[in-house]
Design the sequence.
């Protein structure tokens, strides 16, 4: 049987047989619909603390984000564009620490800056196609899982999502996400809006009310015969009323109508909609910060992309607040590699850098912080090792340079709620940096 494009998208979002529609209509996790007895016997949190949905940005271009963040303005040999937005500017992080970074980073919304971590490390590669290796923390994740896929897999049950796989919204085949070795479909924001916003069979269909009533009637009948009072309370904490379903439908349809392109901000808006629907715990996107800028006269593209990116991040914060999800959704960014930093080499472009990269983490479990730093050997700049107790960059600490990337991965896992045991069971080396976390 040939499936239409709409059918394929719906199946991707809601599973075979569209069982996820039942979850959406009732507010109940799929596990509670398919096997209520087992679901109610399980430990819902399973060691998680304040679990988060995650918007994860990645770029196979290897953008120069690492070149202008806090931590790159303490050495006069590091080159920046001659533009006011890249001028050294004092930036106060959430813990009261004042650092120097590009002026454009000082424009980040204070509420978001207060929970933003700039994490200096390396990805140990200069090869664009190594994007898929980098997302696997260069082989340090068990079963060769990608970081966004590992996070999605473990967060799914605790957040009660329809899918355990992440959703990819960038539309870039070079940034395809693999889950348990299987490539995940690419769904653009406009495709999502067209499919879910369809008046006859999208989110606005009256059939959702009937689906809600039927499934809750069946579950309540089971509870009446076999359920305990605690199990009934368990269902009540998830189930939504008819009025709540209508409100959700109206709100989601309004949000979908606002998506008219596939820009980074539209990718973020689409991710938030998917989180509200509890489709997946993780959505991957692409926010440019200068791209593959070997030839970038006066670093003009780098300047413009940074300006646009900060506007996008502030737009994300506004969208999260509007959806009342600012404490439920975190943001992470890891690209394939960073770019070169020495000022004599970067006047009109930057080359690939396997020795330094910066990942971003933002969210309710993240402390405004600068983790790690740069060493200068007179020829190039390289990420330092780390002191796990302070997060300071040093080659005499307990985290070697070779373990900084995995340590970032462990810290990001902790930032979305993972337990220490779960982190250590899945990421082989490195240490969680506590000073990056609340």
Sequence:
């Amino acid at each position: 049987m040939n499936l239409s494009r709409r059918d394929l998208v719906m199946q991707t979002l809601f599973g075979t047989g569209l069982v996820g529609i039942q979850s959406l209509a009732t507010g109940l996790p799929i596990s509670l619909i398919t096997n209520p007895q087992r679901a109610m016997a399980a430990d819902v949190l399973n060691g998680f603390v304040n679990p988060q949905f995650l918007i994860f940005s990645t770029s196979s271009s290897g953008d120069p984000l690492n070149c202008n963040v806090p931590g790159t303005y303490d050495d006069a040999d590091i080159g920046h564009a001659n533009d006011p937005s890249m001028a050294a500017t004092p930036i106060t992080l959430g813990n009261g620490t004042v650092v120097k970074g590009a002026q454009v980073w000082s424009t980040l919304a204070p509420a978001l800056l207060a929970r933003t971590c700039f994490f200096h490390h390396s990805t140990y590669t200069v090869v664009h196609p190594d994007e898929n290796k980098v997302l696997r923390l260069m082989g340090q994740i068990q079963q060769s899982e990608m970081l966004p896929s590992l996070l999605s897999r473990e967060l799914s049950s605790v957040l009660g999502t329809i899918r355990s796989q992440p959703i990819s919204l960038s539309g870039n085949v070079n940034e395809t996400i693999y889950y348990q070795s299987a490539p995940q479909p690419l769904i653009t924001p406009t495709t999502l809006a067209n499919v879910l916003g369809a008046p006859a069979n999208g989110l606005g269909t009256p059939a959702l009310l009937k689906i809600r009533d039927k499934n809750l009637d069946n579950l309540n009948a089971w509870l009446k015969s076999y359920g305990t009072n605690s199990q009934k309370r368990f269902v009540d904490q998830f189930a939504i009323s008819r009025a709540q379903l209508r409100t959700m439908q109206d709100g989601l349809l309004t949000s979908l109508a606002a998506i008219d392109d596939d820009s980074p901000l539209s990718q973020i808006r689409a991710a938030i909609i998917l989180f509200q629907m509890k489709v997946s715990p993780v959505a991957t996107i692409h926010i440019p910060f200068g791209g593959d800028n070997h030839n970038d006269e006066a670093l003009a593209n780098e300047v413009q992309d940074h300006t646009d990116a900060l506007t996008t991040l502030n737009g994300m914060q506004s969208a999260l607040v509007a959806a009342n999800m600012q404490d439920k959704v975190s943001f992470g960014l890891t690209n394939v590699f960073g770019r070169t930093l020495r000022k004599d080499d970067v006047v009109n472009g930057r080359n690939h850098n396997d020795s330094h990269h910066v990942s971003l983490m933002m969210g309710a479990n993240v402390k405004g912080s600068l983790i790690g730093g740069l060493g200068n050997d007179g020829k190039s700049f390289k990420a330092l090792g780390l002191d796990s107790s302070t997060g300071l960059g040093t080659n005499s600490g307990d985290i070697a340079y070779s373990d900084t990337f995995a340590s970032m991965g462990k810290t990001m896992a902790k930032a979305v709620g993972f337990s220490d045991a779960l982190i250590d069971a899945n990421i082989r080396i490195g240490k969680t940096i506590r000073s990056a976390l609340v």
Q: What stands out?
A: Residues 74 and 100 are 7 Å apart (CA to CA). The first strand starts at residue 53 and ends at 57. The two ends are 51 Å apart (CA to CA).
